[in-house]
Amino acid sequence: MATEGDESVTGASPRKRADAVRNEKALLDAAAAVFVTSGVEAPVRDIAARAGVGTGTIYRHFPTRADLIIAVYRHQVDACAEAGPALLASSATPHAALGRWIDLFVDFLVTKRGLAGVLQPDNAGFDTLHAYFLDRLVPVCNQLLGAAADAGEIRPGMDAYELMRGVGNLCIGADSDPNYDARRLVELLIAGLLRRG
Predict the structure, then answer these.
(1) Domains of the chain (ranges plus CATH)?
(2) What angle (nearest 5°) sits at the alpha carbon of residue 57, between those of residues 52 and 61?
(3) What pLDDT does 122 receive?
(4) pLDDT value at position 119?
(5) Is the four-CA dihedral 136, 110, 25, 120 of positive or negative sign?
(6) Where is the signal peptide (predicted)?
(7) What three-state secondary structure class fits 120?
(8) DSSP state letter for 195
(9) Which residues pair with 194 in a beta bridge?
(10) d(CA 197, CA 184)
């Protein structure tokens, strides 16, 4: 016999889970936006205000700042990974899709500014996140590069990891020097991949 709490009868639990997922996504989006403008040490109250919730809600989901930063990092990696195939399907050319994806990748690199200060490279969590980053994003970049090469837009054989590493290196220090426009240099790099003639 079904009881009042039986989710097969009430359907409440699945809806609650969907609401919880939606709320967590809103918190992570808000935190990512605040991290971009204020860094990862931004006050939790700023993140709560942007998300339209109380600070207690954030602490219920993410008990420590490191928990929040790790969750934002993974959330941003997932969003960047999922964007690749969607951009490939909706862009005029594979090279255009690659350019738009690299732009998102640059946004991601800016969002994770300060992560290394919270999670030192000798921390096991740092290694896990770096492996997650590579596992999720390198195949997407490879897919975009392969599509552009198959279309004859770029030379074949461009290595995704090498390209991503180069983009990352161009972004170093961009947040501390207002005269340095990393995004412009990244755009030049991506434009330079195009086959001429």
Answers:
(1) 11-63 (1.10.10.60), 65-197 (1.10.357.10)
(2) 120
(3) 56
(4) 56
(5) positive
(6) none
(7) coil
(8) P
(9) 154
(10) 24
Tokens linked to 111: 């969002």
Q: How far apart, in Å, are the Cα atoms of 54 and each of 31, 45, 142, 153?
A: 13, 8, 41, 50
Give 78: exposed, middle or buried? Use CB within 10 Å, 0-12, 13-18, 19+. middle
CA–CA gap between residue 41 and residue 38 (Å, rounded): 7
Residue ranges of the chain with per-residue pLDDT less than 50 = 1-13
The whole-model pTM stands at: 0.78
pLDDT at 21: 77
Among 194, 189, 153, CA closest to 169: 189
Beta carbons within 10 angstroms of residue 153's beta carbon: 17
pLDDT value, residue 115 = 57
Measured between alpha carbons, how far apart are the two ends of the chain, in Å? Answer: 74
pLDDT at 124: 63
**112's torsion region: left (phi>0), alpha (psi -120 to 50) or beta?**
alpha
